[in-house]
Write a structure and sequence with these properties.
5-stranded antiparallel β-sheet, alpha/beta, globular, single chain, about 270 residues, 6-stranded mixed β-sheet
Length: about 270
């Protein structure tokens, strides 16, 4: 059984006015951001989800975590029906399903010190005392290559790469099994992004993590992923092992994407 099972997942956004490219439906605009997507993610693997901006990648990631509700379809995590989960059940599931956001500048509350950023999920889910939270926060920082001297500081005092490390530490706080990494290096320069990619790979080995790694960069996805799914206009047009996608691409979009992207040195 796959860790994550998605079947016929669809998300339609209704617009009050038709936008460019939106389909008219009863006088209203309609955008099918995710269109009948089915996929499995196996325990311990990295599924790379690649496609251009606006293809529906981030929406799919948020649907899988039930951060937004689908229009139709089904999702299972370790066999549990995610869409049928009650509030209390969903809270338990969220311990095992976390997200790393794209923007390391906007994803951290500027009013919170780093210690508070990392303590928040521990307060909500684990009800830990202050000293235990401090100990866990220090452990999390060390896991992402920082030290506890960062704890009393605020997010604006750190570089983009350091902020993303803090965001990764926050995602690890509850020791999840599955993480959606939503374009985690796209806002960083190449060298810093490469460090973050290597960090994610090391953390996967250390903690036994499973990733859905979302990116528009085929070289990064190729380097990190066990399997690759290619998304175009809300649909998965091709999926397979990394070797299959790189060596024997089937869709014209994938062929063009591979031809247009250079190798990456990580």
């Amino acid at each position: 059984m796959a860790l994550v099972e998605v079947r016929n997942l669809t998300k339609v956004f209704e617009l009050t006015e038709s936008a460019f490219g939106a389909r008219k439906s009863g006088g209203r605009g309609e955008v099918r951001a995710v269109d009948d997507v089915s996929l499995d993610i196996q325990q311990g693997e990295t599924l790379g989800l690649v496609g251009e901006s606006g293809s529906g990648k981030s929406t799919l990631g948020r649907l899988i975590l039930r951060l937004i509700e689908p229009t139709s379809g089904s999702m299972r995590f370790e066999g549990a029906n995610v869409l049928a989960a009650s509030g209390a059940e969903m809270r338990r599931l969220r311990r095992d399903m976390q997200i790393i956001f794209q923007d390391p500048f906007g994803s951290l509350d500027p009013r919170f010190r780093v210690e508070d950023v990392l303590a928040e999920p521990l307060i909500v889910h684990d009800k830990l005392g202050r000293e235990e939270r401090r100990r866990r926060a220090a452990e999390l920082l060390r896991a992402v290559g920082m030290d506890e001297s960062a704890m009393p500081r605020y997010p604006h005092e750190f570089s983009g790469g350091q902020r993303q490390r803090i965001g990764i530490a926050r995602a690890l706080a509850l020791r999840p099994k599955f993480i959606v990494a939503d374009e985690p290096v796209s806002a960083l320069d190449v060298s810093v992004g490469a460090q973050i990619v290597n960090l994610l790979q090391a953390l996967q080995r250390e903690f036994g993590l499973t990733y859905l790694f979302i990116s528009h960069s085929m070289p990064v996805v190729r380097y990190l992923s066990t399997r690759i799914a290619v998304m175009v206009r809300g649909k998965i047009v091709e999926a397979g092992t990394t070797a299959e996608i790189i060596e024997r691409p089937q869709s014209e979009y994938t062929k063009g994407l591979l031809a247009a992207t250079p190798e990456i040195a990580v």
